[in-house]
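Weekly sync, protein design subgroup
Attendees: M.S., D.O., the rotation student, P.L. (late)

Item 1: inverse folding check
M.S. brought a backbone from last month's batch and wanted to see whether the design step gives back something sensible before we order anything. D.O. pointed out we never logged the input encoding, so this time it goes straight into the notes. Structure tokens as presented (179 positions):
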């Protein structure tokens, strides 16, 4: 499975692509951080992010796009920009016919480090180790995007299998009711 992870942000948006499957080695395909100047117009900044996301999807052809679920922060301005870029990632994936998965920061931290309270350094260190990289991806947005992709490879596959099993069980129950 190839997953494109997106760590949304208006000033810096991490984009990471990882190949892998549960129980198998992970492979780094691509990592980038799209930057926009804080003093640029919001619309211009969003166009830069939209173009970068569409390009990454076209260039790397992921099977799914995993986006960090935006959570409430005290700084409304920051959360609004983050939510806008997350929405762009969801639209870009949907336009490309790809499923979108949302993962909370604590889900990502727990999947990659074993602790939902891990800090940026711990996430970076584990991403470096799991992808067998010579050095830690920088800035932290790059490591976070890769962590999102890893989280989805490990957790998304399990969640999809559970959903398929649940759907099959509902179908079998409906068939028994009809008989």
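Designed sequence read out in the meeting:
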């Amino acid at each position: 499975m190839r997953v494109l992870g997106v760590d949304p942000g208006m000033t810096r948006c991490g984009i990471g692509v990882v190949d892998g499957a549960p129980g198998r080695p992970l492979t780094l395909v691509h990592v980038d951080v799209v930057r926009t100047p804080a003093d640029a117009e919001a619309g211009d900044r969003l166009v830069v992010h939209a173009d970068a996301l569409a390009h990454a999807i076209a260039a790397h052809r992921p099977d799914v796009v995993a986006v960090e679920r935006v959570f409430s922060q005290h700084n409304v301005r920051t959360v609004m920009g983050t939510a806008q870029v997350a929405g762009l990632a969801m639209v870009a994936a949907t336009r490309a016919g790809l499923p979108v998965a949302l993962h909370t920061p604590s889900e990502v931290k727990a999947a990659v480090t074993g602790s939902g309270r891990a800090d940026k350094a711990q996430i970076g260190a584990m991403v470096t180790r799991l992808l067998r990289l010579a050095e830690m991806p920088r800035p932290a947005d790059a490591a976070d995007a890769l962590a999102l992709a890893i989280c989805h490879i490990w957790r998304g596959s399990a969640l999809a299998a559970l959903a398929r099993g649940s759907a099959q069980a509902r179908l079998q129950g409906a068939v028994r009711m009809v008989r």
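Discussion: Residues 95 and 122 are 34 Å apart (CA to CA). The mean pLDDT is 91.
Action: P.L. to compare against the previous round before Friday.
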